[in-house]
Structures are given as C-alpha cells and as structure tokens.
Specification:
Structural class of chain A: mainly beta
Radius of gyration of chain A: 14 Å
Distance between the termini of chain B: 37 Å
Helix content of chain A: under 10%
Strand content of chain B: over 45%
Oligomer: heterodimer
Largest sheet of chain B: 7 strands, mixed
Helix content of chain B: under 10%
C-alpha cells in the first residue's frame, strides 16, 4: 500500500538549533517527493520537491531535504531554526504523471514544529 | 505567480443548507483542480479531481451527490456541500495544476462550520 509516515507528531526545538523532520514512504512506483508547510488556518506552501537527479535538494526558507532510496526516506532539515518556522510540516509522495488523472498526492499526517525562544 | 484563491475563507451555516466554495487560479490556467479535506490535526485527504469541462473523479468513500464539483473554466472550480451536517465541518483546501508542470498550487483553504 502506498503511504507516507511522519513518525514525529510534535517537535519542539530552540531558536537557532538545527532541525530534522523525518519522512518515510512506501510507494510502488518511482516516488516524487514533496515537503509542504502549513501555518495555522492557511493553505499549503511548497518548501521543496524531489523528482530526480541530486538527492540533496534545496528549498525555500533555508530548508533542504535528502532522498535516500535505500531507506525510503526524505527527511527535511534546517541548520538554524527561526521562530517564524513554527508551523505544521507535511511530507507527500506522488507520481510524475498525476496530471490529468487521479490526484494521487499522498500526504503524511504532519509534524507540528514549535520553536522555543 | 501561480496563486490560487478560495472564497470564502470561512463560513458558518445551519444544518441542512448548502454551501458553495470557489477555487480560482489567479494567474494561470489550471487543467486540473483538486479538492482536499482536512480534519483537525489530520492530514489532507483527497476528495476529488476535476478537469475543466468534464465530470469530477471522486475518491472512494466520497459522496458525489453530497459534494458537487463543477469545473466550469480553466480558472474556476466550485465545491458545493449539499444539505450540510455538522460532520461536514472541516477545512477544505483546493489545489490547481498546470499539466506541463508537475506541481500542485494550493489555495488558502476554507473553514466550514455546520451548526
């Protein structure tokens, strides 16, 4: 079955500390991986995506993620967290040709990030 | 670029009434639009996929007669929750996609509360 697992429901880090949010996936085809951020009451903003090529991808707001096929993981990282990073983070997996067919973006349950001053 | 809007941003209605939510792609033409539902502290669950000018494709378990989707143009899709009940209260998010660009652009969401 296709699924995305975010093992950490809630993480608290101190401002300035490093961050890693975990994401594991189970997907039958070649996965295309995404990280989104959602502020309270808001829609989703794309942080970064991986389709192919370099397995370390850079995103907006200083985030990066590394695709590790052997571990079926796509963990999100940031070297120094800012208070404004407090939000909900969703990992998602999809297929390349989902345009025009079933919208099979599968989301994890999310990780809530809190930032301590 | 690639901005998607939703209207209204929140709505409160009485049980038994119908509510329409609009999703617009403001600066691009969306060949496909998606409707998601998000329960509190839960992930997004895809409800349906709609392509302009054709009937929406609903996910298993989603009642197509209750959640009416109309994709009238390349920039507008509407979701109508018919005969709403309190269990329909949720956060509804749409997204829009250009077929040549493999990314969904999400709207800000609509908070529906049914009393």
């Amino acid at each position: 079955a296709q699924s995305v697992t975010q093992p950490d429901i809630h993480i608290t880090v101190s401002e300035g500390a490093s961050l890693e949010l975990r994401c594991n996936y189970s997907y039958g085809a070649t996965p295309y991986l995404f990280w989104y951020v959602q502020s309270p009451g808001q829609g989703l903003q794309l942080l970064l995506k991986y389709f192919s090529g370099d397995t370390l991808v850079q995103g907006i707001k200083g985030f990066e993620a590394e695709f590790k096929r052997s571990q079926s993981s796509f963990n999100l990282r940031k070297p120094s967290v800012h208070w404004s990073d407090a939000a909900e983070y969703f990992c998602a997996v999809g297929s390349l040709n989902y345009g025009g067919s079933q919208g099979n973006l599968i989301f994890g349950k999310g990780t809530k990030l809190s930032v301590k001053p | 670029g690639a901005v998607v809007s939703q209207h209204p941003s929140w709505v409160i209605c009485k049980s038994g009434t119908s509510v329409k939510i609009e999703c617009r792609s403001l600066d691009f033409q969306a060949t496909t639009m998606f409707w998601y539902r998000q329960f509190p502290k839960q992930s997004l669950m895809l409800m349906a996929t709609s392509n302009e000018g054709s009937k929406a494709t609903y996910e298993q378990g989603v009642e197509k007669d209750k959640f009416l989707i109309n994709h009238a143009s390349l920039t507008l899709s509407t979701l109508t929750v018919t005969s709403a009940h309190p269990e329909d209260s949720s956060f509804y998010i749409c997204s829009a996609m250009i077929s040549s660009y493999n990314e969904q652009f999400f709207g800000p969401g609509t908070r529906l509360t049914v009393l």
